[in-house]
Write a structure and sequence with these properties.
Cyt_c-like_dom, signal, globular, two-stranded antiparallel ribbon, 4% strand, mainly alpha, 3 domains, single chain, binds heme C, Cytochrome Bc1 Complex, Chain D, domain 2, two-stranded antiparallel sheet
Length: 444
């Protein structure tokens, strides 16, 4: 009898152990970011096609400063390494995570507070492996598992660009992580599991344009860092590649080929317009972190490079999401229950309709169209609420501006107008509460 119990316990232990290993293995042994593509990736040196790395052919003859600036824009290092209203690349931008806040460091060449004393090897180690000059490890809030695919030449071109900037003296702020998250050595284990530490490998069976797009999207543009969901260990879940995730409180939508929840029915022209200008007719505007990616990175790229990104994006397999089909430019049946919302209605009539039109079609500017737009058709409502809170951010010369109402309205009022907008113009009403708005204020 005793023996039987021991045997049963042993069997149970084996099953539990195997299950735990299985789950861990499932998370650790991920397909690569472009394993979906037919063909066998080869090392860059063995690839016969035109170089997928570096600057596009038009700029091959440009001076090194210009090439460095282009590669830095491709990788969009500036967005994260600049505080709101702060000097470019001087760091200090806060990222609020569930276990504390982390601040980006100063990347200007100031020798004391920036990276002015760093060698090429130290810089490569940081960007490819997430290892600091003192041997400690960075948190993956610095997306080095994507940047590890950048070629050495491109990383060093970025370094040269950074070293050409005026040094800014601004001390780095330590993160506020508590135990055990403040144990940087744990990140050594994390990166051993989740950072392949491998440069981009082109796929000869795919077109040169596709390979350039793969490099721009996966290595430089790190689109998946925002658009791919994460597993329990905070690594990108490549099995749901581009299936949608959250970035600083904003919803980074499904950009796989799914026709309902994703971008499967966007035309190549619409995608190119959205990525290069932040707006595609009838598809809405790029706001929040996506607005920054357009402003600082994508809008700086050549037409051919945007075309390559679109070619690659269109090849990413569909991931089924749970977003409803878009209600279209003239929603036939506004959600009547959601419209029984006098506070939301009053605010929309008083403060939104002048620019967005009573029909949601946009009054003065086509960018202000609310119908047919993903954010308005997202029953989560976060991006609409964040637009009301912050508006379109600092005014820029090439984009129309929307003011923020975060100081003018209470959390209740912002929830009400968001729920009204999604009910009236979207596929399904959001059900945000004042507490949700408070949480969005915290996250952003
Ligand atoms: C998504 C935000 C994000 C982007 C994009 C980003 N970084 Fe960072 N970076 C961080 C964070 C956060 C840290 C701090 C990590 C830590 O403290 O563990 C960091 C740290 C660094 C460091 C270490 C500096 C030091 O003083 O120790 C370097 C170097 C760096 N980043 C370079 C880059 C370069 C080059 C790019 C573009 C190719 C880039 N970063 C893009 C968030 C980002
Ligand atoms: C820092 C996070 C971040 C990065 C990096 C990022 N995105 Fe986004 N993206 C977002 C967010 C957030 C939205 C939603 C914006 C909105 O609602 O206005 C979005 C929206 C989009 C949309 C529109 C989707 C829709 O249904 O309306 C496309 C297309 C897109 N991103 C493509 C890309 C591509 C391609 C890249 C890489 C080159 C990229 N994004 C990089 C955060 C990001
Ligand atoms: C002064 C004019 C103005 C007012 C007032 C205004 N908006 Fe906007 N709104 C705009 C413009 C212009 C855009 C496009 C911004 C851009 O191009 O980045 C926009 C964008 C938006 C978006 C994003 C649409 C998308 O494509 O993703 C939402 C949601 C939105 N506004 C909701 C509201 C609500 C709700 C109110 C009232 C509380 C409001 N707006 C008040 C001008 C305005």
């Amino acid at each position: 009898m005793k023996r039987k119990v021991v045997l049963c316990l042993a069997a149970l232990a084996v099953i539990v152990g195997a299950a735990a290993l299985g789950v861990t293995g499932w998370m650790v042994f991920q397909p690569g970011p472009y394993a979906f593509a037919t063909g066998k990736p080869v090392p860059l040196s063995a690839y016969q096609g035109p170089a997928p790395t570096g600057v596009p052919v038009e700029l091959a003859g440009a001076d090194p400063a210009m090439r460095g600036a282009y590669v830095a824009a491709m990788a969009d290092c500036q967005a994260c390494h600049t505080a709101p209203g702060g000097k470019p690349f001087a760091g200090g931008r806060a990222f609020v995570l569930p276990f504390g806040t982390i601040y980006t460091p100063n990347l200007t060449p100031d020798p004391e507070t920036g990276i002015g004393n760093w060698t090429d090897a130290q810089f490569l180690n940081a960007v490819h492996r997430g290892v600091a000059p003192d041997g400690s490890h960075y948190y993956p809030a610095f997306p080095y598992p994507s940047y590890t695919m950048l070629s050495d030449e491109d990383v060093l071109a970025i370094k040269a660009h950074l070293f050409s900037l005026l040094p800014v003296k601004q001390a780095n702020r330590p993160n506020t992580f508590g135990f055990p998250y403040n144990q940087r050595w744990l990140m050594a284990i994390w990166s051993a599991l989740f950072n392949p530490d491998e440069r981009f490998r082109p796929v000869p069976e795919q077109s040169p344009e596709w390979n350039r797009g793969a490099y721009l999207v996966e290595a430089a543009g790190h689109c998946g860092e925002c658009h791919t969901p994460r597993n329990l260990m905070q690594a990108l879940d490549q099995r749901a590649k581009f299936g949608g995730a959250t970035a600083e409180g904003w919803t980074a939508y499904n950009i796989s080929a799914d026709k309902v929840s994703g971008i499967g029915d966007w035309s190549a022209e619409e995608l190119a317009a959205y990525l290069s200008t932040g707006h595609a007719h009838g598809r809405g505007v790029a706001s929040g972190p996506m607005g920054e990616a357009v402003e600082l990175s994508l809008s700086q790229l050549t037409k051919a490079d945007i075309g390559a990104i679109v070619t690659y994006l269109k090849s990413v397999p569909a991931v089924k999401g749970d977003l409803p089909a878009l209600a279209g430019p003239a929603p036939a049946t506004p959600q009547l229950a959601g419209l029984d919302n006098p506070v939301g209605k009053r605010i929309f009539e008083g403060n939104c309709a002048s620019c967005h039109a009573w029909t949601g079609a946009g009054a003065a500017r086509e960018e202000a169209q609310l119908t047919g737009v993903r954010a308005v058709n997202d029953p989560g409502g976060a991006n609409v609420a964040l637009m009301v809170l912050h508006g379109s951010g600092a005014p820029t010369p090439h984009r129309p501006h929307m003011p923020g109402f975060g100081n003018a309205y209470s959390n209740d009022e912002i929830a009400a107008v968001t729920n009204y907008v999604t009910a009236r113009f979207g596929a399904r009403s959001s059900t945000l509460t004042a507490a949700d708005i408070a949480a969005l204020r915290e996250a952003n």
